[in-house]
Amino acid sequence: MGARSYATHDDVDLVVIGSGPGGYVGAIKASQLGMKTVCIEKNATLGGTCLNVGCIPSKALLNNSHYYHMAHSGDLASRGIECGDVKLNLEKMMGEKSKAVGALTGGIKMLFKGNKVAHLEGHGKITGPNQVSVLGPNGEVTEVVNTKNIMIATGSEVTPFPGIEVDEESIVSSTGA
């Protein structure tokens, strides 16, 4: 039998598949309780849909849009705050959103490091009762983790409604927003 071309992690207490709010909190807590923990995330950054493209970015844009509306509509002026000519710089607004996302996802990375949670990048696939394989972008196995426990925290997908097509133009999902 030939040698494997991927790394193998043994003696792991918990593998968490997914690093969204459920996954990263579960991984950190398990590690704090003394479990040797590995978290597998398919995306380049931790935090899942919520931190990367859903909840947090949407709220950052809504919050900044509200400030713009208050300044543009005269609401701030009526409160004694005069701004002059109000302009929207969408590129700068999107940059601030990206900075907020980067700070939060980077914070999770630091929490993983501080709590000794191993992070493996790739698609987690359960390949046995106590085994999870990490798949690379082309579906190849890059690592295999043998574990006592598996936590599936893969988040959710947008549920389409019959007769309504999410085209990410006029009808958008949390990801497309």
Question: Would you list the SSEs in sequence order as H and E?
Answer: EHEHHHHEEEE
Q: Give the overall form.
A: elongated
The average pLDDT value, as a whole number, equals 90
Proportion of beta-strand residues: 15-25%
Number of helices: 5
| Low confidence ranges | 1-6
What class would the helix/strand composition place it in?
A: alpha/beta
Task: Please tell me about this protein's structure.
The chain is α/β, with parallel strands linked by helices and 177 residues long. Helices cover 37% and strands 25% of the residues. Strands 3-2-1-6-5-4 form a 6-stranded mixed β-sheet, covered by helices on one side. β4 and β5 form a beta hairpin. The longest helix has 25 residues. The N terminus is likely disordered.
Main attributes of the structure:
177 residues; alpha/beta; 6-stranded mixed beta sheet; 5 helices
Summarize the structure.
The protein has 177 residues and is an alpha/beta fold. It has helices spanning 21-32, 48-52, 55-73, 75-78, 90-114; strands at residues 7-17, 37-41, 117-121, 123-128, 131-135, 141-152.
